[in-house]
């Protein structure tokens, strides 16, 4: 899943080397924390959050077979 997120995000940003995905796994949920360069935040979020929503939709669909709830957080 981490690779999927990186594959989606890296072509969108100006600084692909600074894209980092951290995984926090708890009992009933997995949280993926996506961090990008401050200048790339607008590109990852998109107008009215459309790009972020699309990324989340793909990630959640890919993770639908897992028993745990998946969350994607976008941070600086």
UniProtKB/TrEMBL annotation:
PROSITE patterns in the cross-refs: KH_TYPE_1
Stored InterPro entries: KH_dom-like_a/b, KH_sf_prok-type, KhpA
Single GO cellular component term: cytoplasm
A GO biological process held by the record: peptidoglycan biosynthetic process
Gene3D superfamilies: 3.30.300.20
Keywords carried by this UniProt record: Cell shape, Cell wall biogenesis/degradation, Chaperone, Cytoplasm, RNA-binding
Coiled-coil intervals, chain numbering: none
Localization annotation: Cytoplasm
Subunit text: Forms a complex with KhpB.
HAMAP family: KhpA
Family designation: Belongs to the KhpA RNA-binding protein family.
Summary of the function given for this chain in its UniProt record: A probable RNA chaperone. Forms a complex with KhpB which binds to cellular RNA and controls its expression. Plays a role in peptidoglycan (PG) homeostasis and cell length regulation.
Protein's name according to its UniProt entry: RNA-binding protein KhpA
Organism per entry: Bacillus mesophilum
Gene (UniProt): khpA
